[in-house]
Amino acid sequence: MSLFRALCVLGVAGMLVTARAARAGELYSYVDEDGVIHFSNAPSDTRYRRIGKKPSSGGVYRASAQARARPMPRPGSQDRYLEHIRGAAAKYRLPEALLLAVMAVESNFDHRAVSEKGAVGLMQLMPGTAKDMYVRDAYEPAQNIEGGARYLRILANMYDGDLVRTLAAYNAGPEAVRRAGGEVPDIPETREYVRKVVALYEAYKAGR
């Protein structure tokens, strides 16, 4: 069985937490029966599990004022990709809002975007990742979105639906998360990336 298939069949079981265990600065998450990732700093469902505390010197678990203040992408900029986004979200059991948030931060919905490190397209796939995710043309929107969603699903399975670690691994790679003891690596770019994606995810979920 391939690594992709093995990871995709892994369960995304949550650990029990009680609502009274929530403290300011902590974040909780779980994946529901539809594969949707939920997170909260004030959990009201016993399926939530704690995934970390806000570090004392400005952590990644709450969107920073800078990230919250960043403008949303131009309205309608994602409309041409909505069919692909919805299809990938349904196929890989991910929230559409999460794909939108990752895409907005990665490329601002520019399918021609190329980073200094060589990441390509809407979801900024590195060549090796694109190949592993069966993406032949990373500039082609449907393939890029499909590959990015597939990779997010694999990471979500690896981290039991832990949104913060999933995003950190998407940005810095699973090996960087492993070297950080399973936590978000102390890399300014990664910390800011998680802040921005979480802030946009919250905004898209709220319909803003």
Describe the structure.
There is one protein chain. This protein has 208 residues and is mainly alpha-helical. The protein has a single domain, classed as Lysozyme (Orthogonal Bundle), CATH 1.10.530. It is 44% helix and 7% strand. It has nine helices and three strands; from the N terminus they run αβββαααααααα. Helix 6 packs across helix 7.
User: Which structural category fits the helices and strands?
Assistant: mainly alpha
Could you please say which CATH topology applies here? Answer: Lysozyme
- Number of domain units: 1
CATH architecture: Orthogonal Bundle
The helix content is 40-55%
What does the largest sheet look like? Answer: 3 strands, antiparallel
Overall shape: it is globular
Q: Strand arrangement, largest sheet? A: 2-1-3
Observed structural traits:
7% strand, Lysozyme, mainly alpha, 208 residues, globular, disordered N terminus, three-stranded antiparallel β-sheet
